[in-house]
Every structure is written in C-alpha cells, then in structure tokens.
Amino acid sequence: VIVHIGSMSAYRVPNDKGGPGFYAATKMAVRALTEALRRELRAEGVPIRIACLSPGVVASEFSANYHSVPEGDRAQHAQEVYSKHKVILPEDIADAAWYILESPPHIDVNDILIRSAEDPNI
C-alpha cells in the first residue's frame, strides 16, 4: 500500500498571496501521479493499492512555514489561523491514513478529502 499526501489545494486554488497557484499545481500533480502509478502498475499485473490523502487546514507548523512567519511571531500566527474555526488535528490525518492501510485487500481507497466541518472554504 502506498499513501501519498496531497492537499485540498489540489481541488481549489487558494486566494492567498505567496505562490498558492504553484502549491496547488504541485498537489494536483500528486493526484495525477497517484492515479497514473495505479494504472501503470495494475497494467503490469502488480497487485498494489495506492491512495491520496488530501487534508485541508491542519493544526501544525505548515502554515507558519508556508507564509514564512519569523520564529518569534509563530505563536501569534497560529492563534490567528487556528482560532477562526475548528481545524483538523494531526491525529485526524493519522486516523485516515490508518483506515487506508487497514482496509481489506479487495478495497482500494483512491482518494480521501478530509477537512474541518467548519472550514469556510468548502
């Protein structure tokens, strides 16, 4: 089983400044790679399951890194980003990955989109 980590940005291009179009394009490429690899390996008779897990906003260091927030301002940045609505926790992503890995061999989970039910961008 192969699990690629994509992003909700593969399904919608964010409106932020700072290169969101480029980021979205790379995550769209991850989706395409996942599907192409599945088809190519299956055509060769390789019994493989490949999934793409595409999370929305996750409570992590990613936002601060993505927006190049200086080290001293990261706590305030996290408060601003994560106080707007309830966000996904890293454990939620781990649970989704575990679901993919533990699915029976006859089940091929292709793509999981996971985002907060309170995400205003849905």
TrEMBL record:
Keywords: Oxidoreductase. Belongs to the short-chain dehydrogenases/reductases (SDR) family. One of its GO terms (molecular function) is oxidoreductase activity. The keyword Oxidoreductase applies. It comes from Pyramimonas obovata. This is Uncharacterized protein. Pfam families: adh_short (PF00106). SUPFAM superfamilies: NAD(P)-binding Rossmann-fold domains. Coiled coil: none annotated. InterPro entries: NAD(P)-bd_dom_sf, SDR_fam. The keyword Phosphoprotein does not apply. The lineage of its organism: Eukaryota, Viridiplantae, Chlorophyta, Pyramimonadophyceae, Pyramimonadales.
